[in-house]
Each structure stands twice: as structure tokens, then as C-alpha cells.
Design brief:
Elements: H1 2-27, H2 33-40, H3 44-72, H4 74-94, H5 98-112, H6 115-126, H7 132-149, H8 152-161, H9 163-184, H10 205-216, H11 219-250, H12 255-283, H13 287-305, H14 313-327, H15 332-338, H16 346-375, H17 383-404
Helix pairs in contact: 1-5, 1-6, 1-7, 1-9, 3-4, 3-5, 3-10, 3-16, 4-5, 4-6, 4-9, 6-7, 6-16, 7-12, 8-9, 11-12, 11-16, 11-17, 12-14, 13-14, 13-17, 15-16, 16-17
Length: about 425
């Protein structure tokens, strides 16, 4: 029991650190694009491929992860895959061609694919189920630190040691934190503190397939998946690619001010995630907070698209902060889908929607660019192109919020059994 008490305090920060690494790897290419162009003569299409490669690999990995996370446990899954990410970071640092860089990013995507849902699985088994919404939102909030590190701190590191050495240093840190995680973490406490989760068990392979098929038969799974597809896909596409050219080319903002606004957006998510998670726990309501977040993001995009070059920094800062803040409600979707499945199927449920979370980023990253080029050939970075793109995203968020009304609210601590799969709920 003493070892369990120590692990109780160490598991959460160690798992969150691995998720911070995941967030870092996702957007780390943004600040070294000029270095890649200079050193390897990569064009914009190549940069898009390198950026999207991580998200495609991450998304596709959610299918096998959903089958094995509940089977072999979060400890082994997260350890083995995080080591793959470290290898990918080394490959990326040593890459001398587009193919090698893309391969390194693919390995990073594969390696980081389990760190979010694995962390949520550990929270499910180690911590008070009545605090899952708050703790899961805190995970998302802390994970945003990875976005912050991938901005100014990474720029300073690259200036000091070069982008290749910077990624070698990150790979070394990745390896060390992964080893510490493996040595400390256990999949479940030796004696559960909470009767609600004491019945959770390790599943056989056949049962994993049954869980996955049961998940596919639920209407709520598809609605929540669409919600996270649009919510995070739009947020990450704006944050990691499209906000910067809009601010620089359309708004006439300097590169430094643009970086500050992107930083403000991340701070909005850092603050918004725990607040939204706490509200959902306190109000015992997931749907209202999630719908408010989706609508809030859409309104912020509409307001941003209406601005012109004379907009003040405080106005831009407020809108970008609001966009990040309302995005923080998206983490509650994981709590929502978790509560629609029995406890031993929590990993399957959360990885199921995490596939759409990451696939949405890849689709919006490339899809918005294609739409802007098709609608505004020759001026794809002009005001009209961004106005159309932001309005399109706002409409997607609004429609998703409307569909989310169809989901079933599962009160915290109640109705843990979602019923037979043929109910279609």
C-alpha cells in the first residue's frame, strides 16, 4: 500500500509529461520551417507533408491501440510506443531528405499515439471517478505546455545549438522520461480505493473486438467523434498553420506579434480546459459545456474573419484567447464517451474517438489549403480566402453543436452501464 501511495502522486505527472511531449512533437515543425527550406530546399508542399505525416500516423494508430490498451495495459503500451517516438526524433534530427524527415515524423506520430488515452486510462483506474472530468481537463491543460515549449523556447534552443541538435536533445529527454515512467507506473493499484472501479479487468483479444464492434453500434460514438473531428481539427489547423499567414499577410502583423498571439491562444486553452472540466463535474453535465465550447469557437472565428488590417492587438488578443479558451471544452468529450461504456472498455472508447480527433487535424490542415486555392486561385493567402476558410470552419462547428444535442447525457457516478448495444444510443 505504501508503494501505491507513492505511485499515486507520481503517475499523474509522469504520464502528463509524456503527453506534453506529444503536444510538442505535433507543432514543433512550425518554428523550423525556414531552417528546413534553407538546409534541404523543401518547398511548401513538402512542408505540408512533413507536418501532416505525424497526424496521419497518429490517427491510424488509434485502431490497434483501441484493441491492445485494455489488454496489455497502459504501462507497457505507453513505454514501447514512446521509445519509438524517441527513435523518430533521432531520425528526424539526422534526416537529409524529405523522405527521411517524413519517416521520422511518422515514427513520432506512432510513438505518441497512446500517451493521451493511456494517461486517461491510468486516471480511470487510479483516481476518484467523480473527479475524472477535472483531471482529464487538467491533462489537456498541462499538455498545452508542449505547444508553448515548441514556440519561443524551441526557437531559442535552435538558435543556440541548431535544429538537428535540438531534436537530439529532445529525443534524449524522451528516452529518460519514458524509462522513469516504466519503472514507476503500474496499470492499477494493488487495492482499489474506489469500489466503482474495482471490477475493471484485463480483457482477452476476442473481448477487445467485441468492445470495438459494440462501440461502432452506438450513435453517441459517431456524434462525439464528429464533434472532436471538427473541434480539434479546426483548432490545430488554425494554430499550427493557418493563423500565422492570416495575421502576417492579411492583418499586417509582425512575426513576433504573431507568435505572441499564438501563445495567447495556447494560454487560453491552458486556462479553459480545467475551468470547463470543473464546470462539467460541478454541474454534472457534459453536453452543455461541450456545445457552448463549439459555438464559442465558431463565433470567435466569425469575428476574426470580419477584422481588417487596422484591428488593435487587444481585440486580436481577446479573440485568439477566446478561441483557445472555448477549445478547452473539447477535452470533456473524452469523459463523455468514457461514461457511455463499462469501465473495462474505457480504453477502447477513448481511443475510438481519438482516431477522429487526430485525423481531423490532417484533413483540415490540407483540406482548408485546397479549398482556399480552389476558390481563390492566385490569391490563396488573401483576405477573401481566409474569410471563406474561417466561415467554413465556423459553420462546421455550428452544425456539430446542433448534432451534439442528440447525444445522451450520462450523469457522473450514475448509469455506468450504457445498456445493450442494440439500443443504438
Amino acid at each position: 500500500m505504501r508503494n501505491d501511495s507513492i505511485r499515486y502522486w507520481l503517475i499523474f505527472p509522469l504520464a502528463c509529461t509524456l503527453f506534453v511531449l506529444s503536444q510538442f512533437y505535433r507543432v514543433s515543425v512550425a518554428v523550423i520551417t525556414l531552417d528546413l527550406v534553407r538546409d534541404l530546399a523543401i518547398d511548401t508542399a513538402g512542408l505540408s507533408l512533413i507536418s501532416a505525416a505525424f497526424f496521419y500516423a497518429f490517427a491510424l494508430m488509434q485502431i490497434p491501440i483501441s484493441l491492445v490498451l485494455d489488454g496489455i495495459g497502459a504501462r507497457k503500451s505507453m513505454t514501447m510506443l514512446s521509445l519509438v517516438a524517441a527513435i523518430g526524433a533521432v531520425m528526424f534530427a539526422m534526416g537529409d531528405s524529405l523522405a527521411v524527415l517524413a519517416a521520422g515524423r511518422i515514427l513520432m506520430g506512432i510513438g505518441m499515439a497512446c500517451n493521451l488515452v493511456g494517461t486517461l486510462k491510468l486516471i480511470t483506474l487510479w483516481y476518484n471517478p467523480f473527479r475524472f472530468g477535472t483531471l482529464s481537463a487538467l491533462v489537456f491543460s498541462l499538455g498545452t505546455l508542449g505547444n508553448l515549449v515548441a514556440a519561443t523556447p524551441l526557437v531559442l534552443m535552435v538558435q543556440a545549438v541548431g535544429w538537428r541538435n535540438a531534436f537530439l536533445i529532445i529525443a534524449g529527454f524522451n528516452f529518460l522520461i519514458t524509462m522513469a515512467f516504466y519503472l514507476v507506473v503500474r496499470d492499477r493499484p494493488s487495492q482499489s480505493r474506489f469500489p466503482e472501479i474495482s471490477g475493471a479487468k484485463t480483457l482477452q483479444f476476442a473481448e477487445m473486438w467485441i468492445n470495438l464492434l459494440r462501440l461502432f453500434r452506438k450513435r453517441d460514438y459517431w456524434v462525439i467523434s464528429l464533434g472532436t473531428f471538427c473541434r480539434y481539427g479546426i483548432f490545430a489547423a488554425v494554430q499550427s498553420l493557418w493563423a500565422a499567414p492570416f495575421l502576417i499577410h492579411v492583418m499586417g502583423i509582425s512575426a513576433v506579434s504573431t507568435g505572441n498571439l499564438l501563445l495567447i491562444m495556447s494560454i487560453g486553452t491552458v486556462i479553459g480546459s480545467p475551468i470547463c472540466g470543473w464546470l462539467s463535474d460541478a454541474l454534472k453535465n457534459r453536453k452543455r459545456i461541450i456545445i457552448a465550447g463549439l459555438l464559442g469557437m465558431g463565433i470567435c472565428l466569425v469575428l476574426v474573419s470580419s477584422l481588417r488590417g487596422n484591428a488593435s492587438m487587444p481585440v486580436l488578443g481577446a479573440l485568439f484567447f477566446g478561441f483557445g479558451f472555448f477549445n478547452g471544452a473539447g477535452g470533456i468529450m473524452y469523459a463523455h464517451i468514457k461514461e457511455r461504456m463499462p469501465i473495462e472498455q474505457a480504453g477502447t472508447a477513448m481511443t475510438g474517438i481519438n482516431f477522429f480527433t487526430m485525423f481531423g487535424v490532417a484533413v483540415f490542415l490540407q483540406g482548408l489549403g485546397g479549398m482556399m486555392e480552389a476558390l481563390h486561385p492566385g490569391d490563396s493567402l488573401g483576405n477573401g480566402a481566409f474569410t471563406d476558410a474561417f466561415w467554413f470552419c465556423a459553420i462546421c462547428l455550428g452544425l456539430t453543436a446542433g448534432l451534439y444535442l442528440l447525444t445522451r447525457e450520462t450523469l457522473i457516478g450514475q448509469d455506468r452501464n450504457p445498456g445493450p448495444p442494440d439500443q443504438g444510443k
